[in-house]
Design brief:
400 residues; alpha/beta; Rossmann fold; six-stranded parallel sheet; 17 helices; 15 strands
Length: 400
Amino acid sequence: MRVAYITLVDPTGTSGQNVYSRRVAMALGHRDDVELVLVCPRPSGSGADLTAVAADVRYLPAKRPRSIRWHLGIQRPLATELREAHRERPLDLLVSTLRPSLVVPPLFCRYHDVPYRLLVEGALGPEVRSLTDLPLAGGATALVTSLNVREAEIVFAVNDAVAEWVASVPGSTGVPTVLPHGVDIFGEDEVEPQDRAARLETPIQEDDTTVGHRGESHLPATDLSIGFVGSFKTYHCLQPLVQATAQLRDEGHDIGLVLVGTGPVHGSVTTLAASLGIDDVTSMPGFVDPGAIGQYLDTVDIGYGVIHPDRAGSPMKVYEYLGRGCPVIALDDEEFAFVEQVGAGVLVSDTSVDSVADALRTMLTVGPDERSAMGTAGQEYVSEHGHTWGDVAARLVQPR
């Protein structure tokens, strides 16, 4: 099966959208029954992992963040690349993630009678508002969304909330299929999951250099360590986590933080930790190569995946924490109800400091053996309930 996967974000980037696109591409490319044609912006980083799994990689102009001109300018090269790929050998299926300027793929599929399947990670409003405040932008985005939903033979939404939003789009013929984020159960370094207990004391290796392990000076030497990996953005609710940690330390609890990544609120989070006097038990290594992230998760006891409820989307990091055998703290919604049902972590009813602090107190009552069992329960759940990237790829290409 010759499958084209189109993404309008850089698949070598580090934000959630970038990682999602990279994982989908790699999962499709690893299937024996798929010949993958990847169409994406020219990467800013190394694209070797993508060219290794894709039979054909076709680059669009490099992405320019928050650029309306870029979104308008890629329409012609996107049409050209799809037409040439189809002329070289007919495409059997086209898969794309919904973006505000995704005009060409649905029209191409209609004209060439190629089946079209659409991935929707969230409502497009916030992304459009980050690009422009032009009054016509919202209407244009609504038209693009309607076009894609109408032309797709299957629409996959990342969770129930996003599915409800898609169902309300003009042209939608019903509630989309829910297809949650996937996870690589063994991690990029293919470490066996049952080895997690031993890995908690294993030094982190970066570029053949020992970075450290839990207990060394640059990682919190605490009884309970909470980890976060991702982009430092407001909706990830890191400020309540820092404040809750300080509150519990004032109560005499020995806990610390490992916050991995960069982003708009990185500076304010750093300043907040210092002002609350917990910077000595807060490790913020900044950007970490994706291949080393799993090793950082192996230094923490809990993964923090709380996201603001107004954010229409799914925090992929929750699945990644669980896939690594790490218990989680996440927002209490329908998507993550299984976390408490299988005993894989704690859910918070809101993103207030008090709610996060209560969740941390709950985890403080759990010993190392029980935390290990919680992590194993979460890992088994995501593995057995279709949450691996291999499962995602299989559903994307399965016959209708």
